[in-house]
Amino acid sequence: MTERTSFCPNCGAPIAFRWSSSVQTVCTFCKSILVRTDVDIKKVGQVADLPPDASPIQINTEGTYGNHNFVVVGRIIYQYDQGGWNEWHIVFNDGTEGWLSDAQDEYMISFAKEIPHLPTQQDAKLGANYQWSGIVFTVTSRTLAHYVGVEGELPFQYWDKQDVVFIDLRSHASDFATLDYSDENPVLYLGKAVDFDDLRLMNTRKFESW
Amino acid sequence: MPETGPKKEVPTVSVRSLSCPNCGGTVTIRSFGQAINVVCGSCHSILDAQDPKVQVLQQFQAAMKFAPLIPLGTRGKLRGTAYEVIGFQRRQIESDGEIYTWGEYVLFNPFKGFRYLTEYNGHWNDVAPLRTLPIMSGLRNISVVLLGQTYKHFQTAQAKTVFVIGEFPWQVRVGETVTVMDYVAPPRVLSSETTGDNEVTWSLGEYISGADIWKTFSLPGKPPQAVGVYENQPSPLTATVKAVWRTCGLLLVGAVLLFIIHTALAKDKVVFSNSYTFDTYNLAGEHSFITNSFEFSGSRAAPVKVATSANVDNNWIYLNYALVNEDTGQTYDFGREISYYSGYDSDGSWSEGSRNDSVVVPSVPPGHYFLRIEPERDRNPGRITYSVTITHDYPVSYWFLIAVGLLIVPAILITWRSINFEHMRWQESDHASGSGLASALSSMSSGGDE
């Protein structure tokens, strides 16, 4: 993991990109959304105060997935009518990046998967079946989510969003898939539901009287 | 909320409490904001636990107040994880004009999230949300398969929420109805809840005794008595039935082995055999006589078989036997009748009786013996020839049959009681009438593969 120190173009605070492929980060002091270009770092926006949340995970939380250690470097926060959830951007020792989603303490780890001919939002109806990577997935929920904010490092520019559609799919085992319709072309994430204990998280948040 | 206390590098997430916008009462948020709704305990206003302004979403008149058996705020360790009871709802279904209500508890751990307990008539279930989709199978989805285990459809019902208090990780409303489908494989139950056409959620419950709940949450007093048989209540007899049949099987194998050894070790030795003729022309006087002496060797008492054959044909002979020990004078008296009749009638030929007879005298001590024989018959003229054969240490099998009976009878009784239990279970299901026993039998057989 390379670490390159720069300074926030807005407030001058030091900015460290902990992961070489990070495209975007948020200044921890002034909450400016910063995008890294070939030449310098550009401020593209500002994060409003994040709503209070109760996830035990935070930036710099470390964990394990299938014998590989990862560290949390960023997140995207979403809300919908049944609550909110976090998509934590995680980076493994070998530089692989993935996502640890946390919805009311239900955890999933997933990785972007390039698969051609993904279904459109309209096609992926509740109960529809798709086979990816040899696994049959069934659409179990369609969520119209509202982008709330970002924190830390992300592998792409992600900040000027409003409402986004996610379609969640599950298998007859613990496999999990999400179709992300944030952009023009859908992105598929494949992964697994994981137990909190199996993640062996370190540097989690603390809760009063727990 | 102003933060108090010293600032730490890792701020502790603190418990919040709010003022109810309706009545001003204090509402504690125990889930640190993971819950979606919170219900004011004083005025029963359902509030948005996410919105800092906290608006009233619904207010309900509790026709009846249901006090949760486990008070909100109680903590206990369930399957190794500490959980706090943060919400409680009472739901009901209507079936055949009858209303059944049960309680559902929302449990929370800030790292592991939500878990649930249900309680109906003293029967408890520990319920966790399911992350795997069960596979529908059978005709009209009569069963579902989860990780290789088959769950049988028990009941489909419309569950209506009638009372809520505390926090919920979903939008909860009194009066709201969901379709609940239960599939059972005792001690587990697989449930699906369908709300409109948005989402189907599955959960997996496991039966837990009231005593265990009381212990887990350190509750005072005693749990309410469990009434009747619950849908996924493990039969107390299933294990017993298996154990009894296993023991029975082992003992039967033992009995067979003993029988084989016993038979193999038995000398089964003919010590005396002779033929006699009973002349009927000479019926007067004493007909009794004694045989030559013969020896029962060995050191232990053994069964002795006395076999008699007579060429009787439409007549009979009766033989009074006395087996006498020459050394001690001990006598075994017994009589045998040999008769054989045959003929023809409109149905064809018939016969009755047998020309051969045998009897076993159990436990005869070793020694020198003779037989005293006194034949009797009716006055029909003719001669009857009969032969007597004495076999020492004859292998007998009646004890074996008795043992088999004694072993199998309790096993059958316990199996019958177990079938009865399953019958009671399925009587409460959607599949009660008629098919109850069939379901019970098939569920017993499918329940045996764990």
Which key phrases capture this entry?
heterodimer, A: 210 residues, mainly beta, 16 strands, 2% helix, 52% strand, B: 450 residues, alpha+beta, Jelly Rolls, 3 domains, 8-stranded antiparallel beta barrel, 6-stranded antiparallel beta sheet, 4 helices, disordered N terminus
Question: Can you offer a commentary on this structure?
Answer:
The complex is a heterodimer of chains A (210) and B (450). With 210 residues, chain A is mainly beta. Chain A has one domain. Chain A is built from 1 helix and 16 strands. Chain A has one helix at 196-199; strands at residues 4-7, 14-17, 24-26, 32-36, 41-46, 62-65, 68-80, 83-92, 97-103, 106-113, 129-132, 135-152, 163-170, 175-180, 187-194, 206-207. In chain A, the strands form 3 sheets. In chain A, strands 7-8-9-10-15-14-13-12 form an 8-stranded antiparallel β-barrel. Chain A has a 3-stranded antiparallel beta sheet with strand order 3-4-5, with no helix packed on it. In chain A, a hairpin with a 2-residue loop joins strand 7 and strand 8. Chain A is globular and about 50 Å long. Chain A starts with a strand and ends with a strand. Chain B is an alpha+beta fold. Chain B folds into 3 domains: 16-233, no CATH class; 239-260 and 399-449, no CATH class; 268-394, Sandwich (Jelly Rolls), CATH 2.60.120.380. Chain B contains 4 helices and 27 strands. Chain B has an 8-stranded antiparallel β-barrel with strand order 8-9-10-11-17-16-15-14. In chain B, strands 19, 20, 22, 23, 24 and 26 form a 6-stranded antiparallel beta sheet that branches. A 4-stranded antiparallel beta sheet of chain B has the order 18-27-21-25, with no helix packed on it. In chain B, a hairpin with a 3-residue loop joins strand 16 (188-195) and strand 17. In chain B, helix 2 packs antiparallel against helix 3 and helix 3 crosses helix 4 (436-446). The model of chain B is unreliable at 1-8 and 446-450 (pLDDT under 50). The interface between A and B is medium-sized, with 34 and 32 residues.
